[in-house]
Amino acid sequence: xxxxxxxxxxxxxxxxRKYITLKVRETSGEYVPVxxxxxSPKGIRMKSSYEIPVDSEIECLIAAPKSITKEIPFIGEIxxxxxxxxxxxxxxxxxIIETSDRFGFxxxxxVHDFIKERMGEIF
Length: 123
Known about the structure:
The chain is an alpha+beta fold. It has one helix at 102-122, and strands spanning 10-11, 21-25, 31-40, 43-48, 57-64, 68-83, 90-99. The termini are far apart. The mean pLDDT is 83.
């Protein structure tokens, strides 16, 4: 497979997930948490217990609840959705196609790097 990413992905290991969270809006209008695996200014990879159709648009909220109280909204377009044979969850990749707060979204790159640098001091 050819790597098409233009920007570095920031991996979000399990231990970071209490510091950086992602929610996806369901058809009911309710935002539900999903596991954020990695992100960049142009895309995200997540794991969800439900399937999301390829080429559909999703509304998301990303937050760093322990450091930034604001949730940053963005819209993504699903590029792939593959069921994990091991646990039945879905591995989902999405391109970020719109955000009303590009600056706020970029802050999450800084928060991620800060958490990574401070891991020894935080834990």
